[in-house]
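From the pipeline queue, job 12 of 40. The input is one protein chain; the requested action is below.

Action: predict structure.
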Amino acid sequence: MFSSFFSPPRVKQEEAKSFYVYINGQQAGPMSEKEMKQLILQGLVKEDTMIWTQGLPQWTNAATIPQIYKLLLLSSKTSNPKPAEPSIDKAKKEDILSALVALGFKKQAFGPKVDELLIKQPNITVEDAIIMLIKNNKR
């Protein structure tokens, strides 16, 4: 599609490792790999962004250029961090488990259930949590 509208830029020999990119309807470049990484991190260059570099016969999608594809992959790992684990009140958890053990229940049987309950209802009282856990355990 773009090959019929755009002809590759003329490049000087010292710019051989440079990239030209088509952003917001405008051609920009030459750009180094480092500059391309910044554009990727800013969200201006994506897999379908049209890019040309020396050696290519025509403009092509960024994802088809190995150096750029690698940058896209690396940036997606750093820009989409793994969501944080929900935090629970550890003191409240220990109070609940201690009370359950004092009532004759096994701590191991309730550990994950207490975590789940405290994630869903972080403001639940220790007493209400114990009642709810025992009630649900009998089902």
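Job complete. Helices lie at 33-41, 66-79, 90-102, 107-120, 126-137.
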